[in-house]
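As agreed, record minuted below.
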Amino acid sequence: MATEVKRKISASSARSHTRKSKSNSSSSFPSGIFVTLLLVFFTAFLAWAYQAACPPLPKKLGSPDGLPITTPRIKLRDGRHLSYKEYGVPKEVAKYKIIYVHGFDSIKYYNVIATSASPALIEELGIYIVSYDRPGYGESDPNPKQTLKSTALDIEELADQLGLGSKFYVAGFSMGGQLIWTCLKYIPHRLAGATLIAPAVNFWWPSLPANLSTEAFSKQFLEDQWSLRVAHYLPSLTYWWNTQKLFPSYKAIAHSPDILSRQDIELIPTFTAGREPIEGQVRQQGEFESIHRDLNVGFGTWEFDPIEIENPFPKNEGSVHIWMGDEDKIVAVTLQQYIAQQLPWIKYHELKGAGHMFPYADGISDAILKALLLGEN
């Protein structure tokens, strides 16, 4: 009997062990499916993220099925084209020749010193002004290899192909004003004078005091802070960040009125007049090749520090000017003041009660031209 009981227990124990084994075996199967699904999901997410971060190819210019070319263009040494528009007196009779550099999300037609200055002053002084579409904007070809130096060399080559002579003046507004630093760095020998109008400041320039830069950066709108961080630290994600719908992107891209000062709002009818028919040309080749690349270059890691630039006119044969409004909500006036203090050879003009769009106010463009060309205050 004892042997029989032991056998029964052993058989029962065996069956129990078999059930446990079967149970363990069946529970491992779903976990395998879970891992597989997780891998599939992660792979799909990476594929989506890659596609979302990759900007589309720019729209073609000039081909039979491409965008129309409506203004003259020059062909650069690397095969790209720059589109330009001339203002003022003919360059053959001009006494002063100026190359104007447009700002962020802008185009060659928005040439504030040519369109806002008095026609009588331009005629009297004999001023010729040419503006051009920066790479990727309007009707100028994109430059996938764009650098700070290439922007200055584009300006130099434009001057040479248009026959502006050995020396010429440069003027730029906002992001275009920021790029005037590249001319002072790379082609100072070609300059007769330079004007930076409300020039953008890169918060990561090495010579800016950390406390001053941090304070100015903290006063930017929160969504703008993140957009600029992405442009500086993760430039490959600039397109995705400014086209995704989860978080708000750069306010200037959205044309938000929040960035306008009191004076800017008053000037809206002036600086928007006549823009509607040509507004669509600004980003027509794609947002990445125009405004997004602009952010990457302007707020990326610079290959030189503007505050270390030496005076290009040690014998006072020319002059450099910075113009700022003390109520500018886009460019920090405190950083501009510091730069002017560190570079005493720059003539600094600060306008009380003025915002970012102050050059459109009555008489300001005349004053900018007279200071640059005649040395008047």
Remarks:
- Residues 1-29 have pLDDT under 50 and may be disordered.
- The chain has one domain: 73-374.
- The longest helix spans residues 2-53.
- Residues 285 and 375 are 40 Å apart (CA to CA).
